[in-house]
Specification:
The chain is an alpha/beta fold. It has 2 domains: 167 residues, Isopropylmalate Dehydrogenase, CATH 3.40.718; 153 residues, Isopropylmalate Dehydrogenase (3-Layer(aba) Sandwich), CATH 3.40.718. It has 13 helices and 11 strands.
Length: 330
């Protein structure tokens, strides 16, 4: 059965052209996928081929949310905005998953309004794999919540475990609480209290971890609030770019005949660890499946994001989440 992705064609800095281009690429790449592009039909059609693929359809709307709009007000006021329409398609069973590169806050609000929250979850959270360095290790949260309570971190851990199990087949993922040292109950009061909750949770909790443990991939699920998680993610991305750029500058002059091969290998490593290879990440905790990407995404990142959405739907991420949460509530 085909995976149906409702794509917010008007989401992102380079929408709709780059979004449409990336969505059409994924149709060519995967035979068991269907794309529903949500946005102004005439504009979207002008960006595609003369004859559109049978597995692509357009749902028309004249409304969308700009990147500088206040999310709550915009989602409420613009009921027919492209992100709202895309979410309603999933809510009504006409699509399996939403993909947007648009306003992150608006996507959060639209998903919560359309799907509601999963039982036992108060805050949604975003998990992201640690680039190509450790692609089977995820960090949760990376930006949805900057101010949390201890029990929210416990909820993030349960969602991260379910996501890891669904996507990577890790039966009993190792969970680490990111803080400033490896000693028990280290760090801010919220983290200390979350440590006790995690220790009693029944999860495979390995205790407190620090930044070096993240860099070396010593756990499967890294838990912290979205403020710290976002800093870790973007700092790592920036360091990869900067260090590999400097490595190219230093290695090429002394590599002799192998200079071009060295340059190519380092640039390939840099590209492997770009956000464009991740594309998009799910918003876990809402009772529906939605993937959110960078606002600055070009077609290649949209393509990668659509692949992530496809994997999430085909691996039944939402079902794994429901099963995990049923265990803790029952």
């Amino acid at each position: 059965m085909a995976v149906r992705i409702a794509v917010d064609a008007m989401g992102g800095d380079y929408a709709p052209a780059e979004v449409v281009a990336g969505a059409l690429r994924v149709v060519d790449a995967l035979p068991d996928i269907e794309i529903v592009l949500v946005g102004p039909e005439q504009t979207i059609r002008s960006l595609g081929p003369r004859v559109w693929p049978a597995r692509v359809r357009i749902v028309h709307t004249d409304s969308w949310i700009q990147m500088d709009e206040a999310p709550v007000q915009a989602v409420r006021k613009k009921r027919d905005a492209s992100i709202n329409v895309a979410c309603r398609l999933v809510q009504k069973g006409e699509a399996d998953v939403v993909l947007t590169m648009g306003h992150t806050g608006a996507a959060f609000i639209a998903a919560r309004f359309a799907f509601g929250m999963l039982p036992g979850i108060e805050r949604p959270a975003v998990p992201v794999p640690y680039f190509h360095l450790h692609p089977r290790m995820i960090i949760i949260d990376v930006g949805a919540n900057t101010d949390v309570r201890p029990h929210h971190l416990l909820q993030f851990a349960h969602m991260g475990v379910a996501y890891s199990r669904a996507l990577f087949g890790i039966e009993n993922p190792r969970v680490g609480l990111l803080t400033v040292g490896t000693e028990p109950r280290k760090g801010a009061l919220v983290v200390q209290q979350a440590y006790d909750l995690l220790a009693e949770s029944g999860l495979h909790f390995v205790g407190s971890i620090e930044g070096l443990d993240v860099a070396h991939g010593r756990v499967d699920v890294v838990v912290h609030d979205g403020y710290v998680g976002n800093v870790v993610l973007k700092l790592t991305e920036g360091l990869i770019d900067e260090l590999l750029h400097r490595a190219v500058e230093r290695a090429a002059p002394v590599a002799g005949d192998a200079a071009e091969a060295v340059r190519s290998a380092l640039k390939s490593l840099q590209e492997e660890n770009s956000y464009r290879r991740i594309g998009a990440a799910p918003l876990l905790g809402v009772n529906g499946l939605i993937y959110i990407g960078h606002g600055r995404s070009r077609a290649d990142a949209v393509f990668a994001g659509a692949l992530q959405a496809y994997k999430g739907a085909s691996h039944n991420v939402l079902g794994h989440l429901r099963d995990q949460l049923a265990l803790i509530s029952g």
